[in-house]
Amino acid sequence: MKKSVILGAMTFAGLAAGAASAGTLDDVKARGKLNCGVTTGLVGFAAPNANGEWEGFDVAVCRAVAAAVLGDSNAVEFVPTTGKTRFTALASGEIDMLARNTTWTFSRDVDLKFEFVGVNYYDGQGFMVPKELGVSSAKELDGATVCIQTGTTTELNLADFFRSNNISYEPVPIETNAEAQQQYLAGACDVYTTDASGLAATRATFDDPAGHVILPEIISKEPLGPLVRHGDHEWGDVVRWSLNALVAAEELGITSANLSEMAAGTENPEINRLLGTEGTLGEMLGLSADWAKNAIAAQGNYGEIFAKNIGEDTPVGLARGLNAQWTEGGLLYAPPFR
Amino acid sequence: MSTLTDPPKEQFRLSMLLYDTRYRSGTIQVIAMFGFMLLAAWLINNTLSNLAALGKPIDFGFFSEPASYDINQRLLEYTSRDTHLRAALMGLLNTLVVAVLGCITATVLGVIIGVLRLSSNWLVARLMTIYVEMFRNVPVLLWIVFVMAILIETLPAPSAFRGESPEATMSLMDSVAVTNRGVYIPEPLFSRSLGDIHLLGQSSLRFDVSLDLIAILVVLGLSLWAAHRVTLRANRIQEATGDRPKTWHVRTAIIVGPMLVLLIALGFHLGYPALKGFNFQGGTHLRNSLIALWLALSLYTAAFIAEIVRAGIMAISKGQTEAASALGLRSNRIMRLVILPQALRVIIPPLISNYLNLTKNSSLAIAVGYMDITGTLGGITMNQTGRELECVLLLMLVYLAISLSISAVMNWYNEAVKLKER
Description:
The structure holds two protein chains of two kinds. By secondary structure, chain A is of the alpha/beta class. Chain A has helices at 9-20, 24-31, 57-70, 86-91, 106-110, 153-164, 177-185, 196-204, 233-252, 259-263, 269-275, 281-285, 291-299, 302-309; strands spanning 34-39, 47-48, 54-55, 76-81, 97-98, 114-116, 121-123, 125-130, 144-149, 169-174, 191-195, 212-214, 222-224, 227-229. Chain A folds into two domains: 11-122 and 224-328, D-Maltodextrin-Binding Protein, domain 2 (3-Layer(aba) Sandwich); 125-220, D-Maltodextrin-Binding Protein, domain 2 (3-Layer(aba) Sandwich). The longest helix of chain A has 20 residues, at 233-252. Helices cover 63% and strands 8% of the residues of chain B. Chains A and B meet through α1, α4, α6 and β10 of A and α2, α5, α12 and α13 of B.
């Protein structure tokens, strides 16, 4: 025993022991349920609907993985996490994967020992202010009070942005999006800053969305994506390729409408490989042959999920922008299924 | 004649450890001790090896890395380029501020409420009962959130102070601004300041000491000492002659005079808050997170202290009150001179644990976004560095140290007031 006696180690021994057990895929299959970490509530990304069922853009990823692994898109236990609790929940094994608009950064990937399996939304940090303030640029925010969710990358970007522009601000740290909304609407802060998609989603729930503007500056790159624990590569592959299957499905023109037709066999060998009528991709992942078909059947392909939850026809109203397929000038690019 | 001999000395045998009642309890304790130590060693070993397997061995190196986040309430100079250690220090100071303010307010409120609860005035006594029952039966977290919600929702935003005919105006002759971002009060400024001394160079624990403050404290200390000398002299004269000379005007002059001269020499004036841009600038900003936490913790703990004070007073026999009133004392003097000094002996030990509770409850600060040590070291730092075990262990050590210090001070005070038995 090199280290001196430390109290409280007991609490962590259990946590650490849980994390060390290998084979998340087997655990999920044995449990018959996927534990998926999501936000405590961000409309369009993850929030319970009127019937208490979780729905949203991040939720759809959880459902697709559950469908790929277990064949049932409802076999998901959604665990709401805050910006502060999400990593501990994942590291301790409380959740199998985290789909909570989490930014892929070097230190989270390498130092915090997580594995980002891809990007499901290319985002950037923005600022929202009430229109009546008459602010048109983030650089005019000298001396403003800024509401910020604590424990996020946005907190660090904010400090860097104001510092590099040599202007001052007063941070008001907030735990959840709902509290931030309350403080912002009451005028306890002038500005709310988070990922631009989150701002749009939050603004969509206001009584008067038109009274608030999102400033043009996007001050950071925020590639948001699902993540798993580092070291369990089989499970990481399952989540990564479930996400890729959704993206590839859009590119290949597979939609929930024509899915059963395409699953009967097509002229395109890549579609056949993806949907399991040719080759053994499912077996290689340790899943059934129709894993990708189930994943796509859950909520449709990437484009359908986007349009349904956060697209331009929804209250959130986000354009595809960077999140269009590479063939349409966006960044979405699924590696080949071969 | 027979000679008495010592009884034959029993040889110690190993089996006696178990069968001889003289040794048995010792044996059991040693075995239990070993068992406990093995368990502890296994747990620690398990933790360390699991952490190593995760690739996260215990390492405190992150402390010297830049924190990269800002803290709104900072008692020392701090920027986002400072280290995690300095961020933790800011959090520690914020914890201490709210703990000290809370303990003082809770004690004052608690004593008043406890005494009033015993009042013969039916209405006052009942109102105090309602206060106590309301506050101690609702979790303190709810009170904190509730007070914060009231501050945010009912007070005007700084923008309401703007314009030709503003909706809100500053109070106390335009010197205090009460907003939903906090209260701005005038701050003391010195136009001929003596400057600061910088201690500990460029390290993470560096801090500045204001020479103005030192000068004020030194002058105040000297004047108080001189005033005390005047009182002693008056005592001597009274003992010698029976007449006590009037000293209050001399003492007042000794205390106030030098202080006035010093303040004028330093160019003392008040800096008033004024609305500039988005917020009030100038003055001291008491953030509503601090006010909410401070108020809620004080009101909550005061309810418990009130009960302790009531118990302490009721523990003093009624004969004391009757004897004192037979001597002709009025009821408020009986309370102040006879009952409370004796009740203190009963009050102080449970009071210590309430001070500790208040200090530990201050870790709920994150609910209102107050950056205490749980918010900095146990919140943002932990989240950004991913060093959960290290941060939580340190956090536990910090709270342990604070609590033990409070206990030590209060135990010393308890020794001072307890019944002297000779």
